Amino acid sequence: MSTAPVKKTNQLGFEILDYRGSKTTLCAGCGHNAITERLIEAAWTMGVEPWRVAKVSGIGCSSKTPAYFLGQSHGFNALHGRAPAVATGAMLANQTLRCVVVSGDGDTASIGMGQFIHMLRRNPPMTYIIENNGVYGLTKGQFSATADIGSTLKNGTPNHLAPIDCCQLALELGATFVARSFSGDKRQLSAILKACMGHNGLAVVDVISPCTTFNDHSGSTKSYSYMKDHEEPIHDIDFVPHYEDIAVEYEEGAAREVTLHDGSRLVLRKLERDYDPSDRLHALQALYAAASAREVLTGILYVEPARENLMESLKVSAEPLATLPEHLVRPGPEALEAVVEEFR
Amino acid sequence: MQATPTAPSPLDGFDSSAPRTPIVNDFSIQVATANGSGSQTSNNVLMRSIFQMGVPVSGKNLFPSNIAGLPTWFTIRASRHGYIGRKKEIDFLVAMNPESAREDVESLAPGAAVVFDEPLKLDQVRSDLHFYPVPFDKLVGPVCPEAKLRKLVRNMIYTGVMAHLLGIEIEEVRRALFKQFGERKRKAAEMNWGAVLAGQEFAAANLPKTDPYRVQRMEATHGRIIIDGNTASALGCVFAGVTVLTWYPITPSSSLAEALIHYLEKLRIDSETGRRTFAIVQAEDELAAIGMAIGAGWAGARAMTCTSGPGISLMSEFIGLGYYAEIPAVVIDVQRAGPSTGLPTRTMQCDTLPNAVLSHGDTMHPVYFPSSPEECFSMSHDAFDLAEGFQTPVFVNTDLDLGMNNWMSEPFAYPQTPIDRGKVLSPEDLERLGGFARYRDVDGDGVCYRTLPGTNHAAAGYFTRGTGHNDKAGYSEREDDFANNLDRLRRKFESIRAALPAPEIQPREGARIGMVYYGTSRYACEEARDQLSAENGVEIALFRAKAWPFDPVLHDFCASFERVYVVEQNRDAQLLSLMRMELSAESIAKLRKVNYYGGLPLDARTVSDAILAQEQEAAR
Ligand SMILES: Cc1ncc(C[n+]2csc(CCOP(=O)(O)OP(=O)(O)O)c2C)c(N)n1
Ligand code: SF4
Ligand SMILES: [Mg+2]
C-alpha cells in the first residue's frame, strides 16, 4: 500500500523524471543519495506540485542534495547552520509554499543548534530532514556532535563527548512531528516522508545516513553494518494518502491509526511492543532506554496533528504576503495625514 | 526675595541681580536627573512648549546604559537661527540629581543660570552664576497626595519654574502637557498640570529673574511636527509596504521595531477578517533575524530588519550571501558606539565603512545616510524600492541621536511613485519568453530577472547559491563564470549609484575650502560654517552625502577646493576611506580629517575649532 504505484504518471500527469534534479555529485553509496531518491518518490506519489515547493538547505554534502531532486522547484543552498531562518523567512513571505529543508548533523547539531531549537519552538509548517552521518562529510570526516561516545574516526581516534540526539531535543522543545529513520530502510523512510508532507506544522526527521567515505568503518556507530544490527523499528508504518479511501485491515489492538492534517492516515502496526506516538513523555523514555541499550529506534516517535503552526499564530493573511497588491500593503494618504497629526 | 543666595561672594564681584541685555530664543537648557526618575515627560513638555512658541528647538537625551540610578542629562536647545545641533555650552542648568549636581554646576561657564533642589545648597558652590533654589519636596506634597507618585510628579514642577523664568506662555505648557499624556491619561495629566502651576506660582512669588535668557514668540515652527527618527523610519517602512519584519532587540534600534509593530497593527490589519498583511518575528539573534529577512526577500516579501553595531557584526555572513545570491533586504542600522558593554546608549557614525563593504569576499552595499526624520521616512521607504529594484541588501544608517531623540520635522510627504517590485517574472512572462536565465544581464544594467518560489510555471524554478553559479544559475566553479559574475555585480553597483539621492551641495562665495559630511553631522557642520564665516572670515562650501556609492559630482566638488574637510563621528575616518576608494590621487591629497568620537551628538564648536586649527597650520 505504501510502496509507490508503478504507474508512469502521477495524479498531476507528471512522470517521476519530473521530480528529479541534476545528477548527484556525492560519493557512490552515500546515504544522502538514498534519501534523495525517497524524497523524489514521495513527492511524486503524493502529487506535490513542483512549482509550489521551496527547497532550503545549509552547507554540507547533505545540504547539496536539494540540487538533486525536484529540479523544477526553487532551491536555496544557503549558509552553514542557517537553513531554519531562511526557510522560516520564505514561509513568512508565502505560506502557500511547501518547504523542504535538508540539513546535516554538523549543520543542525553544531553551528545551527540555536536556529534548530528556535525553529522547534515556532512550529513553522515545513519538513526538516537531518541527514545524520556522525561526521562532517564535506570538510573530510571530523566528528560531529551526534557521534556516539566511543565511536571512532577513520584513523581510530575515539569520541569522548556525549552525543546530541536531535529527536530528543525536538521532543523536549515541543515539536509536533518527530521521526527517526535509516537511509537504507526504503519502505519506512518513504512512508515517513509522505507523512511529513501531510503534517500542518514542523516535521523533523533525523535520518541515519552513512558516509561511505569517512564514517562507514567498523568503529563507527553510523555505518551500514552498525545500523543493520542495531536498528529497532518501533512500528511498521502503512501510509494511506488523503486521496485514497481505503480501509486498512488489522486485528483489534494490533495497530494504531493517526489521521494527519491533510486527511492522510497512518496505520502504525504493533511490533514487539506497543508504541503510542501521541505520548511525548513515552517517546522520550523510549529514546533514553534505547540509547543505553545501544539500539537505534526508528519510526514516527511523536505526532500531534492539531497544533497551531507559526503562520496561524501570526494571523498572517492567507494570500502570499509576497504578492499582495499595493493597495493592501500601502495605507492611503489620509492614513499618513492622521499619523502625522499625532505629532503636531 | 527670601530664596536668593545667602552670603555675598567676594570672589569676582559678580552681581547676579544686575540688569542684563536679554538673550532671546538663543540658549541651551540642561536638565540633570537620575536615570529612571521619570523626568522624560517633563523634559518633553518643556521642549514642546518652546516649540509651540514658534521657536526652533531640539532635545537630546544623554542617558546611561542602565535602567535606574545613573545620571542622565537632557539638553534642550532653543535657537532663533534654527541651529538644532547640540550646543556644548550650557546656559541654564536644572540640577535635580544629587549625585552629579556639584560637578554639573562646576562645569558651567560664568553667568549661567541654575534651578536646583534647595537642599542641595548649590548656591554655595559658586557665586558667578544665577541661582534659583526650589524646595521641590515641599511643593510636591500638596499637588500629589499619593506618596509613591511624588518622585515622578516633582519633575513637572521644574517645568513650571522654567516656564515662568523663561517667559513661556503657560497655556502652551498646558497644551504640550495634555498632548504628551494623551486622552487616556487624563487624570495623570491633571495632577501634573497641578505641579506645573505649583512651580510657576512658586517662581513668580519667590524667584526674581536675574538671568538674561528668554523665550519670545516667533513663527519659525509653523506646520512642523516633533518626532523621533526611529518612529519616522518605521513609518517609512509602513508606507513602503513592508511585509516581513524580523528583528532582535538592541538599543537604540528596538524602538524602531516597536514603532513599526505599533503602526502595522494600527494600519495593516483587515478590520473584517482580522488578517494581517505583514508578519513579524522576534528572532533568537541577529543571525536568524537577517536570515529570515533574506529567506523572505528570496521568496518575494518586502523584508527588513533593524539593528545596531553588534547585530551588524553577526549579520555579516548573510549580507554577503544576499549580495552574491542577489536577494533584496533592508537593514536599518541605528548606530551606537562600539562592542559589548560601555557606550550602547551613545551615538556614533561608526558603521559607515563596515556596512558599505560588509562580509567576506568582494562585497559592496548601498548605504543611505539620513540626517533628519523626513529623511528617515523617505530613505527607509526608498530603500525597499532600491533593494527590490537591484536585488541586493540595502542599509539605512541612522544613529542613536537621530533615532531616539525628538526632532522638529516637516510633515512627511506621501510617496509619489507606485511601489517598484523590480524585475520579477510572472508565469505569463515565462510563457512568452519560454524560460529565463537567472543571472543573465539582459538589459545591460547588471540587474537580472528573477522568479519567486511558488510561481506556477515549469520554467520558473532555479537554484540559488552564493558564488558558484553560471548565468543560468547552474553550479559552476569555472574561473570565467566567477569573474564574469563579479564584473556584472560591479556594473550593477554603478546602476545603483545612479538611483541614489543626489548630495546636498551649498556653494559659498569666496570659499577656498570645502566640507563633506553626512547624517546627523549636518547640524554641527552647517553651524560651524556660519561660525567660521562670522568669527574668522573663513568661507566654506558644503557637501552633504546622502548615500554611498557617492554621486559622481563628488569628484568635481573635491577638485574645486584647496582642502576638503571630511567631518565624521568616528575615529577612523570611515567616510573618508570610502572617498579614497573613488577619488583621484589629486583629490585624495586634499582630504583632511575632522573626527569626533566621544559618543555625544556632534557640536559646531568642535568642528569649527578643528577646522580652524588645520587652516592655521596650512597657512603657516
Ligand atoms: C560558517 C562556516 N563554517 C564552516 C564551514 C565549513 N563547512 C562546510 S560543510 C561543514 C560541515 C558539514 O557537516 P554536516 O552538516 O554533517 O554535513 P555532511 O557533509 O556530513 O552531510 C563545514 C564545517 C562553512 N561552510 N561555513
Ligand atoms: S563525503 Fe560522505 S557524506 Fe559526503 S558525499 Fe561522500 S559519502 Fe556522502
Ligand atoms: Mg554529517
Describe this structure in words.
The complex is a heterodimer of chains A (344) and B (620). With 344 residues, chain A is an alpha/beta fold. Chain A has helices at residues 31-45, 61-64, 83-93, 105-111, 113-122, 166-172, 186-197, 224-230, 280-292, 310-313, 326-329, 333-342; strands spanning 53-57, 74-77, 98-104, 126-132, 135-136, 142-143, 177-182, 202-208, 231-233, 235-240, 255-259, 265-270, 296-303. Chain A has one domain: Rossmann fold, CATH 3.40.50.970. Chain A is globular. With 620 residues, chain B is an alpha/beta fold. Chain B has 4 domains: 23-214, Pyruvate-ferredoxin oxidoreductase, PFOR, domain III (Pyruvate-ferredoxin Oxidoreductase, domain 3); 227-409, Rossmann fold (3-Layer(aba) Sandwich); 427-499, no CATH class; 504-619, Rossmann fold (3-Layer(aba) Sandwich). Chain B is 39% helix and 18% strand. In chain B, the strands form 5 sheets. In chain B, strands 11-10-12-13-15-14-21 form a 7-stranded mixed beta sheet, sandwiched between helices. In chain B, strands 3-4-2-5-6-7 form a 6-stranded mixed beta sheet. Chain B is globular, with a radius of gyration of 27 Å. Chains A and B meet through strand 1, strand 2, helix 3, helix 5 and helix 11 of A and strand 9, helix 7, strand 11, helix 9 and helix 10 of B. Strand 2 (74-77) of chain A pairs parallel with strand 17 (463-464) of chain B. Iron/sulfur cluster (SF4) binds at residues 26-27, 30, 32, 61, 133, 137-138, 211-214 of chain A.
